[in-house]
Structures are given as structure tokens and as C-alpha cells.
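Design job #97: recover the sequence.
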């Protein structure tokens, strides 16, 4: 149960860091070899993700989890499935959408880091 609570805390810290474009926190939370597959199927690196926040290319105004979040323990790994309503701007264009996220957290050097993440656009009525 401690692992589930730890990951739930990490998920909230990630949400707050993304909203604030807190690059320092994101650098700690994203593994060096992280791969993020975005809602368009584009593979993005840790550097790509952090650069989008640092430059202001991505500016989130809201990121609200909805429905049930599923967290599963797998030894030194944990998986998370969560749905979120996300709004903000990307390259100056406003957007809003509901997205399903799958994240794989790995315990590395005494802290949990995201090593793999995937995002899928979801109908807003679905949880």
C-alpha cells in the first residue's frame, strides 16, 4: 500500500509541476531515457517534454484528473492509468481535451521517475 500512496503523491506532484511549467521538478521526475508517445503518436524524449515547458510552447491552464485512477505495483515499477481534462495553449493556439494517460514509474536512485508515458485523446464523456 505504501507504494500506491507514493505513486499517487508523485502523480499529484507531476500535475502541479506541469501546470506551473516547473522545469526543475520535471527534470527530477522524468527519467533521462523517458519516452512519451503523445496523442498524435509522436515519440518525444525527456528533453522534448522539458523544452516545451521551458520555452512556453506548452502552457497549461488546467489539468484535472477525473474518474478512477488505476495504480498497480510491479516490483520496482508502478503503472498508472488516469484520465484528465487538459486546457491551455500550444504554440499560441488554445486547446481543451480529455486524455487518457498511461505512465510507467520506476524506482531509480531512491526516487520514482517516469520512464515511459503515453497519451490518447478520449471522448469527454468517457472515464
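Job complete. Output follows.
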Amino acid at each position: 500500500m505504501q507504494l500506491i500512496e507514493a505513486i499517487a503523491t508523485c502523480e499529484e506532484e507531476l500535475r502541479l509541476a506541469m501546470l506551473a511549467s516547473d522545469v526543475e521538478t520535471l527534470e527530477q521526475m522524468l527519467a533521462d531515457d523517458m519516452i512519451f508517445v503523445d496523442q498524435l503518436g509522436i515519440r518525444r524524449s525527456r528533453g522534448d517534454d522539458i523544452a516545451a515547458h521551458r520555452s512556453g510552447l506548452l502552457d497549461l491552464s488546467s489539468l484535472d484528473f477525473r474518474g478512477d485512477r488505476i495504480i498497480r505495483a510491479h516490483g520496482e515499477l508502478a503503472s498508472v492509468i488516469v484520465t484528465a481534462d487538459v486546457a491551455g495553449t500550444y504554440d499560441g493556439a488554445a486547446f481543451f481535451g480529455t486524455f487518457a494517460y498511461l505512465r510507467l514509474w520506476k524506482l531509480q536512485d531512491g526516487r520514482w521517475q517516469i520512464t515511459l508515458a503515453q497519451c490518447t485523446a478520449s471522448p469527454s464523456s468517457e472515464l
